[in-house]
Protein: Beta-xylanase
Organism: Chroococcidiopsis thermalis
Amino acid sequence: MAKKTLFTRRQTLFFWLSTFASLSLLTSKNAFNPRQIDPLSRKFVASGNMSIGKRALIKGLSYGAAVNKNSLSSNPQLAASIDKECVIIVPEWELKWDFLRPTSTSFDFRPADWLAEFARTHGLLFRGHTLVWHEALPTWFVKTINSHNARQLLLEHITTVVKHYAGNIHSWDVVNEAINLQDGRSDGLRKTPWLQFIGRDYIEIAFCIAAEADPKAMLVYNDYGLEYDTPEHEAKRKAVLNLLKNLKSKGTPIHALGIQSHLSGDETRFNSDKFQKFLSEIASLDLKILITEIDVKDKNLPVDIKVRDRIVAATYEDYLSVVLNEPAVIAVLTWGLSDRYTWLSEYQPRRDGARVRPLPLDANFKRKLAWNAIARAFDNAPQR
Ligand code: XIL
């Protein structure tokens, strides 16, 4: 067991980087040389030029990213970068209810079909996100759903969508973000229309419908807020574990847990031992694990790009080195590939207005230290 240190490497790094970054602001006449601020001299050197996807494949793993039709169809550089770096893609929007369901009696598969065709023609795996969620629900849904039609709505949606892609899908996020301890239920379930109008069995029912529609697809429960050593994340890990144990005990056809992994560069409360233990508890339920939406928020980091990129890279490396040590982990997807299209520009913008930099490629599709960190994590991962 590695010797316990008072501060983790990243906490030390973050402290020194922030200290030196603020000192350099005070002595602005001196050129700010980020290399002098990195006491741990982590160089994030990645060997060779091989793509992350190929490095993952060598270890029996998959790497990919979330994409949307708008950006992928309009930017050849993004398309080329996805083709080069990824072996799997997931639609950021196009398989959610608000895209798929213009009315209660119709489906529009065109945007998602375009992405499925992109995956097929580029030899990429294609995963589905997400069949049951409390967000991205069309206005007609909220006006229509009630305790008499909710089960039928769930059955029709999942059956139609899963059958449409049967044989061409790697895995489905069947249910997304069903746990929310702030809602106060003893089982930790989020108070959603699904829970309200079907009851707590809606999760089991959703997985059974999906398995019936495509017996070959890997069926995933996906959630966030599981990663850090905080009381909230610890409580949510327990609630998710209980949910999965309950589902498995009933023979529910569930095959994996998706851990979204939306990390924060300024969050230093990551306990590798505790998280490794959580991952092995999930694996002990005979479940695989996918890191489904990883990115690193840099909203509260120093504005200097060299400092920010180093902290973001360290966050990726420290987290993924733990994650990829767990043999049940089979895939890692970043929620986007280039900073140019990250959702965090809208959802977690920096107060200073600087462009956020949470992903492996910058806004000009150039590899960043985050790319090196992810590449190194796969290079150092145990062979599957
Ligand atoms: C986000 C998209 O990236 C945004 O563009 C959209 O406006 C909202 O949804 N967890 C999830 C994803 O499971 O579906 C969310 O995607 C990000 C958080």
Summary: Residues 2 and 242 are 30 Å apart (CA to CA). The chain has 15 helices and nine strands. Residues 92, 176, 260, 293, 343 surround XIL (CB under 6 Å).
